[in-house]
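Entry 12.
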Amino acid sequence: MSSTPNRPRHGALLARAALSAALLLAAGVGPALAQHTATATDLGPEDAAKAQTVTLVLKLPNESALERYVADTANPYSAHFRDFLTTHQFAQRFAPSTGQVQQIEHALKRYGITVQDVSASHMVLHASGTTAQFEAAFSTKVRRYERHGHHFHRPRHRPHMPQSLADQVLVVAGLSNEALFRPMSAHAASQGPLVAPKAVLPKVGSTATGVPGSYTVGDVAERYNVTPLYDAGVTGKGITVGIATLANFEPKDAYKYWSDIGLDTKPNRIEQVHVDGGGPLSSADGSGETTLDVEQAGGLAPDADMIVYDAPNTDAGFIDVFAQAVSENRVDTLSVSWGSPEAFYFDSDLTGGDYTDQLKAFHQIFLEAAVQGITVSAAAGDSGAYDTNRALPYPTFSKLLSVDAPASDPLILAAGGTTVPIQLSAGPGTPPLIVDQEQAWSWTYIDNYLADLTGDDSYREIDFAEGTGGGVSSFWRKPLYQMLTRGMQRTESGQTLTYTDSDGSVTPLLTLPAHYAGRNLPDVSLNADPYSGYLVYSSTDGGYIAGYGGTSFVAPQLNGIVALLNQQQGTRLGLINPLLYSLHWLYGSDERSPFQDVTAGNNWFYNGIHGYEPATGLGTLDVAHLGQALDQFRFSGHGHSSSHGHGHGR
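Predicted 3D structure (tokens):
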């Protein structure tokens, strides 16, 4: 070779370096992390008289009974199989009583704090008061900060629940208005020798391009055998698809995308609900993320109605967007492509406090979703098996095997990612980079190719750790539906996150439990690699973009697919995970299996192998076969799917 290709910087394409760890913490920044990142300037105490609104999540008094009932709704041999509840029925049977809510109102009133509203499910309430009143009630101090020109406030210490509320209130959120969560998307571009995918629209007569990097929902339908459902008239008619997001978007972008790829969709199908005033509208704030969620979910279920719930990117906003979507109970399916490392909720020098009560708060809301029959899917992350290392880059921070929340919750359908067959060009005179089978997505295949091409082993981890999220939860125990599945893993030993200072000194920040029998994720996967990825139209990002990917695509794609299955089955499906794992056990490698095994690739730690593995989960879907497999439960004598269809209302 006459020359050496320029070193690529694929990780930089994700603006990973620009995202400070503090921005991504779901619970505030502890003093140790603030010292290491040094990205926020303390401007002093917040105005004591400034009006504040917080979200309080109340403890469910009968959570264990609710867990059992949800399990029954997913069990074909139970009398309560698909016997879903309305929001009112949920509130009556499992939520705090009106009297308990009144007790909380009285307790807050002693501090001068007023309850503004209570959710229909009696689980979430909003209260208003001044900074000083909330500081007194929750024994904390709220301070103002500035980072890169953005001003925000947050508590200096974790809020402490007063004794009068401790037995009934699980979480208080909203004393911070800091942007906390990240979307799970990635973008490929020309860096070094690899040529970026170029935007290509489908030819007339097809909704698919057949071009990696410019794939559309038409390509997804062809690859994962969705088309037979369309041929049978299953298009999402009568179903409502929900999107939970932390950024506003332009609905006209989705309509343009569907029109430009030649897809016939239901007109005027998008309704926007701006929770807590709604999320921001800009490229930097993630509007493109919301756009792709809508385009993908709505494109796969073209006749479904859509409700897009957007909220501010704050701790309260993320709770409220789920709480409102679920308590309104107007959507049959729901997906989210935002999240944060599960480890960031743990008590450590990293966070300066235990925030796992927020994980429990999300879980309560997902329990309500499940018992009402709403299937919730979430992106498993785009940092491979090392979820914290997208926010805390290696080698300044050590590698830490970790997973993303809320995908790690056992009530979530966790969406993983693959690379589908592609051929990439590294320039004239160089051998092509060929991926000849669908494999677990990580850019190890690119790095290894470049290292072999150049003879420079420093390429081996230049893209660490871009790839599909997957691994073992350190918080949620392995659910019953995974107990009999081979390939389940426990957490690894020696998982300590450390910070290395410029002088070489090493500070331990967090140690995760070893050999913990936690929930494994993802559950299923679809194509997510940006180099074999998708075409998106987003006006906030400048129009058409090719080479988009990430598990952010898979979560809404699963959302649309489940919406189709809702119509086909004539009922909401609720918590679908137990059935998926049962079907995987039942069908094995049978040609009628709803799953296509992924036996190649890796996510930087877990390898694609036969059966379940924490890189692609059960594998990819054959949607038509999944629909046929679910048919055997449609008219189960134990269930109530004939009387409890989709669209329960409140």
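Annotation: The chain has 18 helices and 29 strands. The chain has two domains: 29-60+95-177, 183-205+214-632.
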